[in-house]
Write a structure and sequence with these properties.
By secondary structure, this protein is mainly α. The chain is built from 3 helices and no strands. The protein has one domain (27-102).
């Protein structure tokens, strides 16, 4: 979550700093909430699986670690939520940058 948030924060700052027109994002608080819920849920799935001694780096879990597939699916749901929030944020930044290019 850290590197993605720093990169998005920079692009957001850049787009606000250098755009002359205001592109208002009415869903900004929903976007941030989805990003936090998705990111924390995704990381929590790793921590919960780790507490159950499930390794992360399996493409096919052996029979001894059959619960790993369930934990992976449990982590996939918040990952999708996080991806949706990132895409919403990216669309907002892109709209602001495009308005900056076309108003000059």
């Amino acid at each position: 979550m850290g590197n993605v948030l720093f990169s998005l924060g920079f692009f957001y700052w850049f787009s606000v700093q250098y755009s002359k027109s205001e592109v208002v994002n009415k869903l900004q608080s929903l976007n941030i909430a989805l990003m936090i819920i998705g990111g924390v849920g995704f990381l929590a799935a790793f921590y919960i699986a780790g507490a159950d001694s499930i390794q992360r780096r399996y493409s096919n879990y052996p029979a001894e670690l059959a619960a790993g597939k369930s934990y992976a699916l449990l982590g996939a749901v918040p990952a999708i939520i996080y991806l949706i929030a990132i895409l919403m944020f990216f669309v907002n930044i892109t709209r602001r940058c495009l308005s900056m290019l076309f108003t000059r």
